[in-house]
Amino acid sequence: MRDNGIERGEETLDPADWNDFRRLGHRMLDDMTDYLEDIRSRPRRHPTEKDASMICVRLTEEGEGDERTYQVFRENILPNSMMLASPRFWGLVGGQGSAYGMMVEMLRAGMNGAQEFADAEALVNTQVISWVKEMLGYPAEAGGVLVAGGSEANFTGLAVARNAKAEVDVKAVGVQSVPRRMTLYCSEETHLCLDRSVELLGLGKDSLRRLPVDDEYRIRVDALERAIAEDRREGLHPFCLIGCAGTTNTGSFDDLEALAAIARRERMWFHVDGAFGAWAHISRTHRHLSRGMEKADSLAVDFHKWMNMPYGIGCTLVRDRAAHFATFAYGHEAEYLRTAFDVGEDHLGNPHNLALPLSRNFSSLKAYMLLRSNGTRRYADLVQQNIDQAHYLAELIGRERDMRVTAPVASNIVCFRYAGQGLGEEEQASINRAIMDEVNKREFMMFSDTTLNGRYMLRACFVNHRTRKEDVEYLVRRVGEIGRRLEGRNP
Ligand SMILES: Cc1ncc(COP(=O)(O)O)c(C=O)c1O
Fold first, then answer.
1. What would the mean pLDDT of 89-118 be, rounded to a whole number?
2. Helix (H, G, I), strand (E, B) or coil at 241
């Protein structure tokens, strides 16, 4: 008999010696705690050839064991990673996670939660959905489901919209049988994952009308109304209006009140992508931006960006619970699923019936523990802190002779560029590209870049709970220094 109680010749994934495992586990925890504690002073590294040769190996038959495999993680993977956890990561929309979040992930993996339809898991899941509705001011009677992130949250909302508004039973006959082509409307600033959803839902990307924006990067309501009217004249079926609560480029918010009114008048589904921006609702100063969001038929939001939960968690809230259920309900005919689905409770709230996956990873546990541990005020303070940091950055840039803010700062994103002295558009673009390369190769992904109205620019997005004022000041100093050097002026 081995330490883990099984006979020789039998196999299991349990450790042969639980005490060895305990020691390794404690070491892992210590190492990761050190990593997070020292994250501010960690150098940015990229994998060397040696690292690559340690990582990319032939898979062995025997297995290399927990110790050896962990060593590769510790020495070759972790130190050469993108370091999203850094206090100076403002690229893309990248959440940083947290120490407690890391531990909560371990608890979830330990219990290997995969179901959320009964027992404590169901209570936790339902509680999280309630908390999210309350925090975001969404109607209490609405339903919702946790998904893997913003893309899936949008996909889920649009799937319900399609099925609810189609003039045929889409589940039975598919979009091939709709009598009129179904069209959707959003601004040209809408995240590309909406195109992907529309494509995957079989509606055809061309059915998504990407409409122009005003000077503040909000959808132009006049263009929207014209587009809907034109499509109706053509005999099409305008069925869904998509609003942005926080665009990825500039963090701007569409006039959601106006969009809600148009959707109501036109009997269209109103979907809001609030992947990160919905959380502006809990700020002190910028709640007004989200006005009208509560009128959405479906709202996509995630937790792994501005709420800094470990990656892989988003949420779709849907006002019409029956329509949501009707879109995804499946498995009721399958004998092998009967036990799981006949839970005799609130079947409309059973998350296995509200999104694509059947097995779930009990992700509600991390939202539950983190929300409960931190409380709403702490999250509200952090959201506010990020908004303040974005405005502080814009203010600092405004004081620099060589730098410009290049788009209105609506919430937590600043678009900017090094402008130098008397440089033309092309020269500015190429210097900013070089700044971007230099900073991100040597340091963390301090910022990313984008192009707005054909103009290349840098872009810093603040969802980082580790950022301090001095980091914001560092960004301005660093961009100025590199820019002046590249321009051939004294740094
Ligand atoms: C506004 C918006 N919507 C959707 C997404 C996609 O979310 P995810 O990356 O979680 O799939 C993003 C990602 O940055 C986003 O900014």
1. 94
2. strand
Partners of 456 in beta bridges? 451
Model confidence, pTM: 0.96
Report pLDDT for 442. Answer: 80
Provide residues with CB under 6 Å of ligand 1. 93, 149-151, 191, 193, 246, 248, 273, 275-276, 302, 314
Query: What's the distance, CA 285 to chain centroid?
Result: 22
- Judging by beta carbons within 10 Å of its beta carbon (0-12, 13-18, 19+), is residue 475 exposed, middle or buried? buried
Phi/psi at 211 (nearest 5 deg)?
A: -100, 155
Mean pLDDT across 105-131: 93
Q: How far does the centroid of ligand 1 lie from the alpha carbon of residue 92, in Å?
A: 9
The C-alpha atoms of residue 304 and residue 85 are separated, in whole angstroms, by: 12
- C-alpha distance from residue 73 to each of 67, 79, 409, 485 (Å): 10, 9, 39, 38
Please state, as a whole number, how many other Cβ atoms lie within 10 Å of the Cβ of residue 269: 24
Please report which confidence band the pLDDT of residue 331 belongs to, taking 50, 70 and 90 as the band edges: low
In the predicted model, is pLDDT for residue 445 greater than 90?
no
- Assigned token pair, 398: 């405004």
- The whole-angstrom separation of Cα 259 and Cα 239 is 13
Using alpha carbons, select from 73, 151, 82 the residue that is nearest to residue 313: 151
**CA of 388 relative to ligand 1 center, distance in Å:** 22
Determine which residue's CA is closest to atom 14 belonging to ligand 1. Answer: 93
**Residue 215: pLDDT above 70?**
yes
37-71 burial, b at 16+ Cβ within 10 Å, e below that, comes to eebeeeebeebeeebeeeeeeeeeeeeeeeeeebe
Nearest-atom index, ligand 1, CA of 92: 14
Taken in order 381, 465, 471, 417, the sign of the CA dihedral is negative
Quick: pLDDT tens for 299-317: 999 999 999 999 999 999 9
